[in-house]
Amino acid sequence: MTFAAQILTLYPEMFPGPLGISLAGRALADGRWSCSPIQIRDFAEDKHKSVDDTPAGGGAGMVLRADVLARAVDHALEAQPNAPLLAMTPRGRPLSQTRVRDLAAGPGVSILCGRFEGFDQRLFDARPIEEVSIGDYVLSGGEIGAFALLDACIRLLPGVMGAASSGEEESFEDGLLEYPHYTRPQIWEGRTIPEVLRSGDHAKIAAWRKAKAEEITRSRRPDLWERHRGVPDRSPSGARRETKED
Ligand code: SAM
User: What residue owns the CA closest to ligand 1's atom 5?
Assistant: First the structure.
């Protein structure tokens, strides 16, 4: 099955861009996923092909119009009725490896990329759109977020990484960050590879890796560590965090 990605954007020429090379590029050439950028401007109906207008209530910047975007979204929904419709927004639910795995297991995604100040709220009120954020910072457009989301999905598609590397031991897969890796040379600048990794004792190696993953998660990402241990969210924002069961 081909994972079908539709990207609604004002810059369709950006795609597949970085997803056209390396692992994702080979997967695209092999037909494991397809990339269909859709020009939002094609759904504008005035002679200037306007997609945005000034914010109601005043303020800086421009807002993407609900009527134009809804036509683009309806087109995408008609082409792929079973694929989730996502919009990249900084206020969306933070993208997680759990959500990426769910998306990668499905038929594909339609991704709406914002620009300017973002979208007219009525678009979200009127259409089944899931808002997704790729982090607590502001990009100039949703395309970079779409690349990140698609890249994370594509590498999980069957046959893309190969049998040897299923991704199951990577960061976030069991709620922990990954343990450290080493490779030859055995001694570099006076630093040696930990003895246990050269012992050949697989049980000991697994135990060492688990302990390291826990130590790194506890010190670098106390939020993940709390979640891993099932401690309820007590963040100042009160926002609900994803639990292992999500
Ligand atoms: N006014 C918006 C705000 O304060 O939330 C920011 C708009 S941003 C300049 C333009 C577009 O970039 C957004 O509509 C969204 O599509 C995308 N974008 C920016 N930051 C993002 C993030 N962290 N995650 C996902 N999309 C983002």
Answer: 90
